[in-house]
Amino acid sequence: MLKCKYCSSTNVTVQAVESHKKRGILMSIVWILIAIVTCGLVILIPMLTKKGSKTKSVIVCQDCGKITKV
Ligand SMILES: [Zn+2]
């Protein structure tokens, strides 16, 4: 049974969200560092890391409104 990890309510819904926008500034910095270290080999990496608009599920609590990762 799914439940909210904040208030332990079972009054929750599961929603699908797109996760591709999670790749933020930190990831870009890491990517640049890797590019420097590997002398450009990292050009190949976006093909490995970009998985398009992959969706994931999150639990949305109807009582406290908090979102919990599944
Ligand atoms: Zn809750």
Give a topology summary.
Layout: E1 12-18, H1 25-37, H2 45-49, E2 55-61, E3 67-69
Antiparallel strand pairs: 1-2, 2-3
Bound molecules: zinc ion.
Walkthrough of the structure:
With 70 residues, the chain is of the alpha+beta class. It has one domain. 26% of the residues lie in helices and 24% in strands. It has a 3-stranded antiparallel sheet with strand order 1-2-3, with no helix packed on it. The radius of gyration is 17 Å and the shape is elongated. The termini are close together. 4% of the residues are buried. The model has no long low-confidence stretch (mean pLDDT 80). Bound molecules: zinc ion. The site of zinc ion (ZN) has 8 residues, from loops. Zinc ion binds next to loops.
Average pLDDT, rounded to a whole number, is 80
Order of helices and strands: EHHEE
Q: Taking strands numbered 1, 2, ... along the chain, how are they ordered across the largest sheet?
A: 1-2-3
Distance between the termini: 12 Å
Structural class: alpha+beta
Number of strands: 3
Apparent shape:
elongated
What is the helix fraction of residues, given as a range?
Answer: 25-40%
Hetero ligands = zinc ion
Provide the β-strand percentage band: 15-25%
Query: What's the main sheet like?
Result: 3 strands, antiparallel
Unreliable segments of 5+ consecutive residues: none
